[in-house]
Amino acid sequence: MKHGRRYVYDLYYHIVWCVKYGREILVDDIKDDFLNIISNICKNNNYELVEINTDKDHVHMLLGLSPQDSIPVVMKTLKGVSARLLNQKHNDKLSKVLWGGHIWSPSYYIATTSDNVMDNIKRYIQNQGDEDAKRTEDKIISKQ
Fold this sequence. Notes:
This protein is of the alpha+beta class and 144 residues long. 48% of the residues lie in helices and 22% in strands. α1 (28-45) packs antiparallel against α2 and α3 (115-126) packs antiparallel against α4 (131-142). It is globular.
């Protein structure tokens, strides 16, 4: 539990977003740089990055936020800053498969989560990119 001036909160969100056109760009050095960028964005904005991982074409994260954090602003910050910095560093690779500086699909998925499913969601996120583990975790998540 966290505390504000006049409130107590425990807000966690499972967030997913995709690479534009389903391009599989989140590999090797681009993935490593993306994870570092997101970590820095979260530190700079006081977002609690609980877990993050990617498959080649999408991102999963578990993020703790305060009641003052606006979801649309958080998403604009995460996607906008990461796209700008990835384009600066990897423009030669990205411009071959993406154009106009757009890396991310404009949509995203977000769901609140609670303590009783937090460990399952963490495992699910950790297993992104691992096909066998993902099939098992999908079954567990869908039963909740």
